[in-house]
Known about the structure:
Blueprint: E1 2-8, E2 36-41, H1 48-64, E3 67-72, H2 78-87, E4 94-99, H3 101-110, E5 120-134, H4 145-153, E6 159-164, H5 169-181, E7 185-190, H6 193-201, E8 230-238, H7 239-244, H8 246-260, H9 263-271, E9 278-281, H10 283-287
Parallel strand pairs: 1-6, 2-3, 2-4, 6-7
Antiparallel strand pairs: 1-5, 4-8, 5-8, 5-9
Amino acid sequence: VMLLALAGCGGKDTTPAPQPSDGDAAGEAVVYPADLLNYYVAASAGGGLDIVSRAFTNQWEDALGTTFEYIYEDTGNTYLMALNDLGGLDEDEFGVICGLPEAMLGMFAFQDSPYTVDDIAWIGNVYTDANCLMVRIDDDRFNSAQDLIDYARTASSPIAISTPQALTPANITAQIFVEASGINANVVTYSGGSGARNDLIGGNNPVTDIWPDAQVVSAFATDFEMPDLTCHCSIWTTKAMAERNPEVYQMLVDTYAQAIQSDDAATNLKNANQDRFIDYFGPDETAA
Length: 288
């Protein structure tokens, strides 16, 4: 069984973070205009989005002078539900979404959605991961990706490629990989990456046991071209809120940059074994 999953490729940006602007003429610090910010996580509690978020949101709370209310959108169409909740806030309420923008864009493209990318106001990127092809470490038939391709092109029965959820970069990558390489394979979607990994390795083995020497695409894609498909985690809010409250939106952008690049966040991310994935972008680069 083959699995496409995520391994970090982003390096940490050491650019000094922008600082929140001062307040009135007396020099008082700007205070966020609400006691609460709704932080919508487009996934289940305890997953990757939650783990990474917990590493920097305390610093973001402090920079804003408010409290975050974590809300997990973990059933149904998580991105549509999060956007509905965000759009349904009153004018004196505020919120952001933490999720995979590629999954949201997939929803716009392939499902009936009342939203488009033009409804999004980006705040910043959190991390960037490569999509990795993994086999069991004890399967000695495959010592390179080319071994797999050669085998699967002539296999009498299809191999299975396990991926997390339909509208994820890993699943889209798997589908393109099958088409581009001409292998005989079925792509099997799971409700998350952990189930796919556990089925591959037969238990709760550490993921590091099966991907210590992942190959880059250029090492095996010699007779076909693969697009540069990666997985991002980003923060965004609604364009309507940003246009209605531009000063609040700018405050979210500035304080997020300050929080994600703080020393405390760096320590938390390192302790959570996530520091090598962090890849901060500002709103414009995230949008691009």
